[in-house]
Design brief:
This protein is mainly β and 284 residues long. The protein contains two helices and 22 strands.
Length: 284
């Protein structure tokens, strides 16, 4: 049976928070998974209302107007704390209140650990490497936080390459015996030179060869919904290109900080990495 989560009443009588699992069963929405690294699908208003903007933790959130009402599709960072969280909603002038808050619940989730052995260069980078990474992070942050006001037609994504899922999202990384950052994507075991396909239609907003990520491509799908393809051996698109679902973006490889050739595929919502498997047509 589908579960329904009903939050506390908001400051506005006409808007009561509802995070409803049935929303996520629609093919155009990701699965409702309100835990760190997941996605919360939250009802923020009735269908006859007008929502202009929704913020979570200071970041603009993707919204959709549907028959059942206005929905916010919220990406939850891996370091999010379990408990009740707040969305800030800006409504149209005809609303009872032009701005109001509503809440939703983040549940706890524990991810397993993964131990890896990597090149010492990436554990003890040179001053030149650190300077390069600083420049990289400026470009990457701009791409991660890109905002296109057009809503995506669907959240359904295709796996960019056929292969075994060698490392799932959220793994707590232990690199050469030291704690590292959590795994913020989905790894697909493919050899160097495998064509990598766009998971959905979109526009290329950045490409580059970065110290840690290697050759990478960012594709924007609308309203902060972005896919990222890294460790590539070759990039066949450029910034500004419009790509269709299934279009070849380049070839897989082993550039950047890797233990071997593979695709690291990531999904961003409101500037944070979320579990790509929540968007696949079928669970893997």
């Amino acid at each position: 049976m589908l579960r329904q989560l009903i939050g506390r009443a908001s400051a506005v009588a006409w808007c009561v928070l509802t995070s409803v699992g049935v929303f996520a069963q629609d093919a155009a929405l990701p699965r409702h998974a309100p835990y760190p690294g997941g996605v919360a699908v939250v009802k923020i208003g009735e269908a006859d209302s007008r929502v202009l903007e929704v913020l979570f933790d200071g970041r603009r959130v993707l919204t959709q107007k549907r028959a059942e009402g206005w929905l916010a599709v919220v990406g939850l960072p891996l370091d999010a704390k379990p408990g009740r969280q707040t969305l800030h909603v800006k409504a149209g002038e005809d609303a009872p209140k032009r701005a109001y808050d509503t809440t939703f619940e983040i549940k706890a989730k524990t991810y397993p650990a993964q131990h890896l052995k990597i090149s010492s260069r990436f554990m003890e980078p040179t001053p030149e490497d650190l300077q390069r990474n600083e420049r990289d992070q400026v470009v990457i942050a701009r791409a991660k936080n890109h905002w296109n006001p057009e809503a995506p037609p669907s959240f359904v994504l295709d796996l960019p390459a056929s292969g075994r899922l060698s490392a799932r999202f959220g793994l707590r990384r232990v690199l050469n015996g030291e704690d590292g950052s959590p795994h913020a994507g989905l790894d697909v075991a493919v050899g160097t030179g495998t064509p990598l396909r766009a998971a959905a239609a979109g526009r290329v907003i950045a490409t580059g060869d970065y110290f840690y990520s290697g050759k990478s491509v960012f594709v924007d799908h609308g309203q902060g919904f972005i896919t990222l393809y890294i460790h590539m051996s070759r990039i066949d698109v450029k910034e500004g290109d419009t790509v269709e679902r299934g279009a070849t973006l380049g070839l897989s490889g082993a550039t950047g900080r890797v233990t071997g050739p593979h695709l690291h595929w990531a999904v961003l919502l409101n500037g944070v990495y979320v579990d790509p498997e929540l968007f696949l047509k079928t669970a893997r």
